[in-house]
């Protein structure tokens, strides 16, 4: 309010306050949805030894996610006397918060599907091993692309250029490496952050398409084929 939104009314403040409050409450509900059933199943002796370790890790990750959220929001409330920029949370903490959420969601989904769906026993052919390695590499690329999106959001980098595929009138903008040292541009220069996100996004869609085309050459179970096709559909939609 002191730095930017001098004319904000009380109803406008209440709107953003309730958005933040709802987000926090929802996060706490998620935490209870993990911890309470886990404690019940543990007490009844329904968890195997490996699953106990998995449940502990997931519950710990839920708590860590909440702690990271507080740490992220705190950075947006800190006074920065040397900066006249728009108040915003740290892009580093935002990326960490998003990254841990993705890990938590993926681990939860993987654990649930592992319990619900029996694993297919397939012959370990060279093609199948290559497909698995390529799928893991594609996963890492998509994760990196999502994290780069957090830096775009944290720096409002999406407001710098709004044309595609060129950025303004150029393929490579003039201010791509304007900051010194050069490494700082990757995390703090809005132009570089948006440029990297574009490249990573295109690379992710390309990798998913290549994964789909490669999978068509291999005899796979129906469930696996559905998963690869769905991945391509979601990538194109995204």
From TrEMBL:
Its cofactor is heme b. GO terms for biological process: heme A biosynthetic process. The keyword Iron applies. It is found in: Membrane. It catalyses: Fe(II)-heme o + 2 A + H2O = Fe(II)-heme a + 2 AH2. Its main location: membrane. The chain crosses the membrane at residues 25-42, 54-73, 93-117, 138-161, 197-215. InterPro entries: COX15/CtaA_fam (IPR003780), HemeA_Synthase_type2 (IPR023754). It holds the Pfam family COX15-CtaA. It is a multi-pass membrane protein. It comes from the Eukaryota. One of its GO terms (molecular function) is oxidoreductase activity, acting on NAD(P)H, heme protein as acceptor. The keyword Zinc-finger does not apply. Coiled coil: none annotated. Pathway: Porphyrin-containing compound metabolism; heme A biosynthesis; heme A from heme O: step 1/1. GO terms for cellular component: mitochondrial inner membrane. Keywords: Heme biosynthesis, Iron, Membrane, Metal-binding, Oxidoreductase, Transmembrane, Transmembrane helix. This is COX15 protein.
């Amino acid at each position: 309010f002191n730095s930017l939104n001098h004319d904000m009314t009380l109803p406008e403040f209440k709107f953003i306050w309730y958005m933040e409050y709802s987000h926090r409450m929802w996060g706490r509900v998620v935490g209870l949805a993990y911890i309470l059933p886990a404690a019940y199943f543990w007490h009844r002796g329904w968890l195997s030894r490996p699953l106990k370790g998995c449940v502990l890790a997931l519950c710990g990750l839920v708590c860590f996610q909440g702690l990271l959220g507080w740490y992220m929001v705190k950075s947006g409330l800190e006074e920065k006397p040397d900066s006249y920029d728009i108040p915003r949370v740290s892009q580093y903490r935002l990326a960490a918060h998003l990254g841990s959420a993705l890990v938590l969601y993926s681990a939860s989904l993987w654990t649930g599907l592992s319990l619900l769906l029996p694993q297919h026993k397939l012959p370990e052919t060279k093609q199948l091993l290559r497909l698995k390695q390529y799928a893991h590499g594609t996963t890492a690329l998509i994760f990196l692309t999502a994290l780069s999106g957090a830096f775009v959001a944290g720096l409002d980098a999406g407001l710098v250029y709004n044309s595609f595929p060129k950025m303004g009138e150029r393929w490579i903008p003039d201010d791509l490496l304007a900051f010194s040292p050069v490494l700082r541009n990757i995390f703090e220069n809005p132009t570089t952050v948006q440029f990297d996100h574009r490249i990573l996004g295109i690379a992710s869609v390309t990798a998913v398409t290549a994964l789909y085309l490669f999978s068509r050459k291999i005899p796979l179970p129906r469930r696996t084929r559905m998963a690869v096709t769905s991945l391509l559909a979601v990538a194109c939609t995204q």
